[in-house]
Amino acid sequence: MTASILSQKVINLNESASLKAAALAQKLISEGRRIINFSIGEPDFNTPDAPSLEAIKAITMGKTHYSNPQGNLDLRESICEKLQRDNALDYGTDEIIVGSGGKHIIYHAFLATINPDDEVIVPSPYWVSYPDIAALCGGKPIIVQPNSESLKLEAEELEKNISAKTKWVVLNSPSNPTGAVYTEDELQAIAEVLKKQPHVLILSDEIYEKFVYPPAKHVSLVNVAPDLKERTLIVNGASKGYAMTGWRIGFGAGSTTLVAAIKKLISQTTTCPSSISQEAAKVAFSETQPSIMMRDSFQGRRDQAVTILSTSELLGDIRKPEGAFYLFLNLEKIVGKQTASGKVLNMDDDVVEFLLEEANVSTVSGSAYGFSPCLRISFACSIEQITQGCQAIVDALASLKD
Ligand SMILES: Cc1ncc(COP(=O)(O)O)c(C=O)c1O
Hints:
By secondary structure, the protein is α/β, with parallel strands linked by helices. The chain contains 14 helices and 12 strands. Helix 3 runs antiparallel to helix 11 (275-284). The termini are far apart. Pyridoxal-5'-phosphate binds at residues 41, 101-103, 127, 172, 176, 205, 207, 237, 239, 245, 250. Its EC number is 2.6.1.-.
């Protein structure tokens, strides 16, 4: 069958670049190559025991049926308690929608609200899926450049890009791919701009909330600007903070109008999130210990990666991420150099290919995140792999010539 059967929307859609890079690394590993996979976007820890045991209990007790499309009431109660305990935010169960992952919530939120040509402001460097999901829902992604030092969105730049057509502004803290964490003051400045634009909705993606390295602190936009609560959809979930990526549970906290609209869409698309995963997530959201253990471990791995990579003159001053589990390296001193075999590395994609070939390390290029020339390295793998992989990168870079 030919591609002519496909819709223009799907033809225009890009496959997730990070999932594609991770899949290529897995393929090479299965073919016998000893690749260190720095392209993964998930914790390497197993799901903690408590949610796993709750899922087994759910299966044996026959909790295996369709649920409320909005998510079970007791799970939504557990989410409200989590928001109160961890974030000092008050939400009622009718302001919570549970979906099959945070990505599913973002997709349905955009689908529920975007009319043709509505604009979605996406600060760069961005998580690969925001522009594609916005376009898939008929919107127009407007990419806004960050502060060149911090790689964060600045209030003035945001203000310049808001128009009468702006439907959503996307905020992501801690950020994938940079690991940047917005401070209270930075969020306050952004909030002041948003308060003047009552037609704009705000997506606050806080999925990496549990991985913030002291002294940095996670703050939600709704904490600093409670008057924006009605227009903000907080997106979070079980995937990252609770090492439950495969369970597919995410949630949105927002206005009852938006929650009801997403519920209606879910009732016609996926019907409801997995009933077994919902039982597990209910327990996960009541726990704090496992994420603290993971956070401390990631912090050690981050420090190890930065220490080794900093020994390469070509990587310059490495920005230490304050959150998430990614390093976003600047490749300005590397593009234009030649490999030993004479190939010129013209762009970050070439560097990714070079590192895969010469260092046996899989990474993702900045171009996937709308910001070049850069490289994303995930440090969600063992300290041994980090040590070996980062040293291999340093050694491969040392072989480059002017
Ligand atoms: C910034 C960001 N938001 C949302 C998600 C979606 O996570 P999930 O759908 O697994 O809950 C991801 C996953 O990589 C992410 O990096």
